[in-house]
Structure formats: structure tokens, C-alpha cells
Amino acid sequence: MSDLNRGIMKFDGADKPVLVAISALLVLGAITGLILWALKVAYVA
């Protein structure tokens, strides 16, 4: 059992590269969105 199959990811196949990639893209997309929103709000032009 890999480490990715523990914690909140307690289901078979949680360590599939496709699921890991999708999760990474969602997290990075959310971070990028928050940064862009913060810059837009902080520097109103």
C-alpha cells in the first residue's frame, strides 16, 4: 500500500497517476486563481 492510499484518500486506486495529476491541477489552479484575484483586488486600476 502506498502512502497516497492513506489518510483522506482511503480508496483503491488513490495513487493512480491520473488521479494524482488531476488533484495537482485542481490545487494549482485554485492557488493561481486566488493569487490573480488578490492582485486584482489589491491593485484596482
SSE topology:
Layout: H1 17-42
Helix percentage: 55-70%
Briefly note the structural class of the backbone. mainly alpha
The radius of gyration is: 16 Å
Specify the biggest β-sheet. Answer: none
Overall mean pLDDT score?
82
Task: Count every helix, treating DSSP H or I runs of 4 or more residues as helices.
Answer: 1
- Reading the helices and strands in chain order gives H
Instruction: Let me know the number of strands.
Output: 0
Beta-strand residue percentage? under 5%
Distance between the termini: 52 Å
What gross morphology would you assign? elongated
Q: Low-confidence spans: pLDDT under 50, at least 5 residues? A: none
Write up what this structure looks like.
This protein has one helix at 17-42. Helices cover 58% and strands 0% of the residues. With 45 residues, the protein is mainly α.
Offer a few descriptive terms:
single chain, 45 residues, mainly alpha, 1 helix, 0% strand, elongated
